[in-house]
Design brief:
The protein is an alpha/beta fold. The chain has two domains: about 80 residues, Arc Repressor Mutant, subunit A; about 250 residues, Rossmann fold, CATH 3.40.50.1360. Strand 4, helix 8 and strand 5 form a beta-alpha-beta unit. Helix 2 packs across helix 5 and helix 7 crosses helix 8. The longest helix is centred in the first third of the chain and has 20 residues. The protein is globular. About 40% of the residues are buried.
Amino acid sequence: MEDLFDFIPEAREIFTRRFEILEFIIQQDLAGRRRISSRLGLSERVVRDEIEFLRFNDLVLVEAAGVKPTKKALMTYKELRPVYEEAASLKLISSKLCDLLKIDRAIVVRGNVEEDEDIFINLGDACVDFVKDLVKKGDIIGVTGGRSLREVANRAKDLKVDDLMVVPARGSLGKIPMYQANTVAAIMAEGFRASYNILAVPDMVDEKTLNMLLKNEEVKEVYDLVRNIDILIFGLGRADVMGQKRGLDQKTRNEILKRGAVGEAFGHYFDLDGQEIYSQESFGISKEEFLKIKKVVAVAGGAKKAQALVSIAKMRPSMSLVTDEGLAREVLREFGGEK
């Protein structure tokens, strides 16, 4: 395909433009021409012509309220995504990212969540497509919380695997229910037509409280499931941001940042070399359990998480990553010497 784009340079531009228009329509489910034009930076005339092309090929329906994707559009979108990644140079970025971070697989979607929140939808779609190829009968999928994971859950659907279960990999954290691991697990399970269990306990508990909670049979059952996760899908964060979200006092936050903490996952804080700087007592999976899980998928976007991503990859290189172009390029620039 790259040879074709080299032979017909204008084909690359036409293909990527049509793909991005179709992608946006699928994201929105219903989109007006003016909004498409504004979001993608295209003239309304160009958008009108491209929508006519998509309509002629049975990829969209044009109604008074706007443009809607057809069933054929969804299948075509998935089939053409690898071609788009190559046309948009995302395949090369993915390869460079894998080499730099020493990770198993990197899937990079166009854009930057810090500039366009709709990119979270692309992260969700890409992660779901990847996970579908990982799961097998009887698997337990563990999920953390956060914006990226919530969008993965929102996009989960059409997975026909028997005896699949989804569980939260941590307890409740934060004040926004829609982004908590329990909510993510329930929504993902519904989309995948799987069963699920929730951890109706706070994430941060001391050992005494943990032992007391485990006397409850329902809590103990889920706790044991979490310790037998087959596939983990998790988000990662910056140490400074997550320290505040997790309720660390100012003195402790300053101390761990002074010691070099840049990344956080599961209540553990790591420096750029992947060395643990600090950990909070948590009901969820431990660092040791995390390292033992065979199939691990990180989902993260936004250039500001570059150092956090590097720290987690150094700690656990044998993982897969779903990320956006903004974060991927920043990692390559800051740590790979690219301009």
